[in-house]
Amino acid sequence: MKKSRGRTGRRRRRKHLQRLMDGVNCSQELEYIKLKKWLKDRGFEDSNLRPAQFWDTGRGLMTTKALQVRDLVISLPEKCLLTTGTVLSSCLGEYIVKWKPPVSPLIALCTFLIAEKHAGEKSLWKPYLDILPKTYTCAVCLEHDVVSLLPEPLRKKAQEQRTILHELYVSSKAFFSSLQPLFAENTGTIFNYSALEWAWCTINTRTIYMKHSQKECFSLEPDVYALAPYLDLLNHSPNVQVKAAFNEHTRSYEVRTNSQCKKYEEVFICYGPHDNQRLLLEYGFVAMNNPHSCVYVTSDMLLMYFPPLDKQRNAKISILKDHGFLENLTFGWDGPSWRLLTALKLLSLGVDEFTCWRRTLLGDVISARNEQQALTVTAKICHFLIEETQHVLLQISQLKRNKENLKKHLALVEALHLEDLKILQKSAEILCNLNMAT
């Protein structure tokens, strides 16, 4: 009997240690107690979810009971959601209705977040604002030194995003000034660029999709945002499936799981089948072993290994461009994509084979020589990308030693490149086997 009790004790200790490894319950922290009370006052029933700190994903939600397929994970009443309706019923409403040309639903929500954050203790949304991140790690927030280390396609998108945000700020300045009667302080200091960047990132990273009817006081951009306190603590995993939608009958936003989840494990939702470049751009994180991850090949890289003296080169590039074969060319966990191989097969067509370009785009084999050359060039591109990625990783490790303030951002970009390196090494292996087979 004693032995059995000893084994039970050890088992309990093991379970307890496992639980600590999985996640540390944070529900006793004051900010979460206040948030839960605030949600309860708005009709939220306490669920089986507890805020917790996880060693790999950071802050998230754990379940206190095992979840089965189709179980309700969370049901958040309409009163808890922050939408443009919330903004219009606040003191900002009359200013938005009067303003011409109309502001976008996005700017209305950004304005509300900035105003409520500025209100501090007086804000009705304070318990929610207190648990929002103070800073973000989306591509738009990264320092110039860090952006320059991103893969080229992502670097371009990050720069485009920064331009969009800057233009949004400049075009909204006059509207922000019109709100001066509501504030004792100058609106220029309240609604500055960093405040807009924070509000924009909050909406970009945390809103759920919820379609609202078009209102005349807003521009024609779709009004599809809702901030969902507590629910937005759920982290993303590419390996889970959920069903999430607003339930008209219960007037609540509901999430149901299509995957099982053990007791005390972290509960995940899926933001969509996004690769790591998209996750970093839009959400500010990288998912390790992401099945949707890929490495992009730019059109410049594609043409690097083909002689500029090829008289049909320009015609081949035109064909690829017209048929959309100069973008979304990738290496994935299963090797080079069909699109990448097809583009390279078309560029590898000999003078006597050029008339067969339509068959190439359909996936037909034109000749053994064409197949072999396309594979050889694919392998060269893959090895070039491996060397380039290794070089960037070396730069990052040097910067991490010298730039303490950039460590968090650098670690994120490093994680992206490490995942890329794994994909490229796997692709190189696959290409080696294909070359041997042919």
Automatic annotation (TrEMBL):
It is found in: Cytoplasm, Cytosol; Nucleus. GO terms for molecular function: histone H3K4 monomethyltransferase activity. Its EC number is 2.1.1.364. Keywords: Cytoplasm, Inflammatory response, Methyltransferase, Nucleus, S-adenosyl-L-methionine, Transferase. Residues 47-272 form the SET domain. It catalyses: N(6)-methyl-L-lysyl(4)-[histone H3] + S-adenosyl-L-methionine = N(6),N(6)-dimethyl-L-lysyl(4)-[histone H3] + S-adenosyl-L-homocysteine + H(+); N(6),N(6)-dimethyl-L-lysyl(20)-[histone H4] + S-adenosyl-L-methionine = N(6),N(6),N(6)-trimethyl-L-lysyl(20)-[histone H4] + S-adenosyl-L-homocysteine + H(+); L-lysyl(20)-[histone H4] + S-adenosyl-L-methionine = N(6)-methyl-L-lysyl(20)-[histone H4] + S-adenosyl-L-homocysteine + H(+); N(6)-methyl-L-lysyl(20)-[histone H4] + S-adenosyl-L-methionine = N(6),N(6)-dimethyl-L-lysyl(20)-[histone H4] + S-adenosyl-L-homocysteine + H(+). It holds the Pfam family SET. Gene3D superfamilies: Rubisco LSMT, substrate-binding domain, set domain protein methyltransferase, domain 1. GO terms for biological process: inflammatory response; methylation. The keyword Cytoplasm applies. The keyword Glycoprotein does not apply. Its main location: cytoplasm. InterPro entries: Rubisco_LSMT_subst-bd, Rubisco_LSMT_subst-bd_sf, SET_dom, SET_dom_sf, SET_MeTrfase, SETD3_SETD6_MTase, SETD4_SET. It comes from the Eukaryota. One of its GO terms (cellular component) is nucleus. Forms a ternary complex with TBK1 and ZNF268; the interaction with TBK1 is ZNF268-dependent and leads to TBK1 monomethylation. This is SET domain-containing protein 4. It comes from Charadrius vociferus.
